[in-house]
Amino acid sequence: MTRDDALLEVRDLRSGYGASLVLDGLSFSMGVEAVAVVGRNGMGKTTLCDTLVGFLPAAGGEVRLAGRRLDGMAPEAVARAGLAYVPQGRRLFPSLTVDEHLAMLARRARGRRWTTDSVYELFPRLAQRRHHGGAALSGGEQQMLAVGRALMLNAPLVVMDEPSEGLAPTIVDVLVDAVHHLVAEGVAVLVVEQNLRAAVRMADRQLVMVSGRIEAEFAGDELLDRPDLQHRFLGVGATAGEPA
């Protein structure tokens, strides 16, 4: 991918906590597609998310979205620049209903592709639960709401941190379909996943993170079909996701 083709370009990114670097020269780029970042625990996946969205300042390198530098921006400025975030753990308001969560962004979404109604079309279950509070939703419903809330920013890129975590296979199916739907509509999706099988189903490109860098890239089902590569890069055995 050339620099002109890239929607998101991350170059030599360094970030961490205090004097301890977690990301150390991380680089990758992506266009309007779904890309997954996979890796063992402790390799820096969540640090990458926190740095991309501005929660954690970069110590060096660049993050560009459609050519515009994001590193150094506050989280709200990153969101306005076009990066929407679905955080690990969903971070919903327990006392607010589904409708109320989406209403907070409804004015910004008016006249654009993603509105409350279009989120309900993508996730019919949310429409059925629209008057229920965040604390009354199942884990899968909460994840759908977290995705729907992010979509209402109408951003060209959505970053999802561990979207399949703790979810039943039927709900993962819903999320996989949603990711494919978004890409077909021109929205890029960066998925950071511990679940290899879910990552491969969501994204045709998988980037393997090792010690704060992207060490390998795979396409399609190659990583699922190669237990030796899973063991080498992810520390899992013949069945993806199982400890070696």
Describe this structure in words.
Pfam families: ABC_tran. One of its GO terms (molecular function) is branched-chain amino acid transmembrane transporter activity. With 244 residues, the chain is of the alpha/beta class. It has one domain (8-234): 3-Layer(aba) Sandwich (Rossmann fold). It contains ten helices and ten strands. The chain has a six-stranded mixed sheet, with helices on both faces. It has a four-stranded antiparallel sheet with strand order 2-1-4-5, covered by helices on one side. The chain starts with 7 loop residues before the first strand and ends in a 10-residue tail after the last helix.
Q: Helix coverage percent of residues?
A: 25-40%
Distance between the termini: 34 Å
Q: What is the residue-averaged pLDDT?
A: 91
How big is the Rg?
Answer: 18 Å
Keywords: Amino-acid transport, ATP-binding, Nucleotide-binding, Transport
Organism: Jiangella anatolica
GO molecular function, one term: ATP binding
Pfam families: ABC_tran (PF00005)
Brief sketch in words of this structure:
By secondary structure, the protein is of the alpha/beta class. It has helices spanning 45-52, 75-81, 98-103, 106-109, 116-122, 124-128, 139-151, 169-184, 196-202, 227-234; strands at 8-17, 20-30, 34-38, 58-65, 68-69, 83-86, 157-161, 188-193, 205-210, 213-219.
Keywords:
244 residues, alpha/beta, Rossmann fold, 6-stranded mixed beta sheet, 4-stranded antiparallel beta sheet, 10 helices, 10 strands, 26% strand, globular, disordered C terminus, AAA+_ATPase, BCAA_Transport_ATP-bd_LivF
